[in-house]
Amino acid sequence: MLTLENVSVSYGAIEALTDISLTVNQGEVVTLIGANGAGKTTTLRTITGLLEPKNGRVVYEGKTISGMATHRLVPMGIAMSPEGRGVFANLSVRENLEMGAYIRNDKKGIADDMERAFTLFPRMKEREQQKAGTLSGGEQQMLAMGRALMSRPRLLLLDEPSLGLAPLVVHSIFEAIDEIRSEGTTILLVEQNANAALQHSDRAYVMETGRIVMEGDSKQLAADPRVKEAYLGE
Amino acid sequence: MDTFVQQLINGLTIGSIYALIALGYTMVYGILRLINFAHGDIYMVGAYAGFLLATLVFNSEPSIFAFVIVLLGSMAIAAAIGMAIERFAYRPVRKYSRMTTLITAIGMSLFIEYLFVFIFSGTPRSFPQLIQNDNYTIFGSATISASQMLIFAVSILLMITLQYIIFKTKIGKAMRAVSFNINSAKLMGINTDFVIAFTFAIGSALAAAGGVLTAQYNPKIEPLMGIIIGLKAFVAAVLGGIGNIPGAVLGGLLIGAAETLVVGYGNSIGIPSTYRDAVAFAILILVLLIRPAGLLGTNVQEKV
Hints:
The structure holds two protein chains of two kinds. Chain A is 37% helix and 27% strand. Chain A has helices spanning 40-47, 70-73, 93-100, 107-120, 122-126, 137-149, 167-182, 194-199, 218-223, 225-231, and strands spanning 2-11, 14-24, 29-34, 55-60, 63-64, 78-81, 155-159, 186-191, 203-208, 211-217. The radius of gyration of chain A is 17 Å and the shape is globular. Chain A is an alpha/beta fold. In chain A, the strands form two sheets. Chain A has a six-stranded mixed beta sheet, with helices on both faces. In chain A, strands 2-1-4-5 form a four-stranded antiparallel beta sheet, with helices on one face. Chain A has a domain at 1-69 and 188-225: 3-Layer(aba) Sandwich (Rossmann fold). Chain B is globular, with a radius of gyration of 19 Å. Chain B has helices at residues 2-32, 39-56, 64-90, 98-120, 146-168, 170-180, 182-187, 192-217, 226-240, 245-265, 276-290, and strands at 125-126, 135-138, 142-145, 220-221. Chain B has one domain. Chain B starts with a helix and ends in a 14-residue tail after the last helix. Chain B is mainly alpha-helical. The chains are: A alpha/beta, B mainly alpha. The A-B interface holds A 48-50, 69-75, 79-80, 82, 86-91, 95, 98-100, 102-103, 147-148, 151 and B 170, 173-174, 176-177, 179-181, 183-192.
């Protein structure tokens, strides 16, 4: 479904990604784990066109998408919940969800999907008319994910959904990820919380300083002594 | 008392014009963090567009119909010119520093001014009277002219329309989304370039409406007429809290009222009426000392 072929990205003279190749297949949950500054967010930003690769290309459903404008990817079925959530604090919860459905015009379908988002995250329903800026971090994360789902994506990119959240909230975020996946959405999940990410994914890539250093089945990686030592704190 | 009411009417008239122009400054700032220095000149362009429409197309008796056509026509022309300026002058330099765009805006302002001097010469023209400008007596002995009433009515109508667009329509919500976080907006599938162009179109149309309305009140138009009024409208936007839409309206009305009151009463408290143009800036300095974010501005958060 999504392939990165030997992608390199630079910020000025500094190379942030070196020769990244990865694949996400239809229906999978793939996770990208690694320490802060390893290049995980840069990888997602490159996929969504917020950054342009210096070398290599990004292919989605057979089409090269690197270099395409970000807003054109949404109608193709890609949505992202960005790093730091990126909710529109000056808009209400409902308006944020409406923005997620910006490319759609089917009023009925949008209303149904909004109900679906409220079922997935009941807290959003309670806060419907509140400004998103007044939500807690966990609620903002739920809103960011619900908003991304409003475009009915086939590929959902999640950037650090558990960052800075209390363990209980992290738990419900990962439950939502399982739920989204069970509805058939393919997910690429970037996480620092390697433990949870490996538990809730099929395959994983490990990044270090802009390179992919390990890849494989999530369960096998979770059992790998090097991963255990470096990322699982065992 | 009667003169006070009279001064207030006159002040709110000019204040409504400041407010219409200030809206364009504040919307563009809200969305791009850019002070569009060419915005005051769009007010002038609007007046000239109206002038051309009025002299070329209409040569008849004053009528409200002619006025509406000239108003809408000049708003449309200014909207197109505003979008063209954004597309060809600002968009190409947007990826560089904000200072680059700011300097481009100053250059664009001078370019428009002297292009119009070149085309129309610096000689003032007289804008045709499109409505019967009768005077009416209100509140005892204060007078209000038809053109002043027109300024109030049209400004209020335009502000309500703007409020509706920004809060109730899809494009308006997209404008608010873009102004808060442009990358998140792109991830929603919003064509942010289009939203930015649309913002310039709306702001320019409002400024042009200000130009045509003013020309009904004071028919003398010339290519440099947008400089000082643009500056005051900018002050009004900052005074109200730049990026804040109700703030722009409040700032415009306050500055308009303050300067006519200085003309009316300044002499009695030792401020000569020739200080009229300085009043706006004096108020600005005072307010910014106390509330740096402006009257209705919240703490300005720098975007990283």
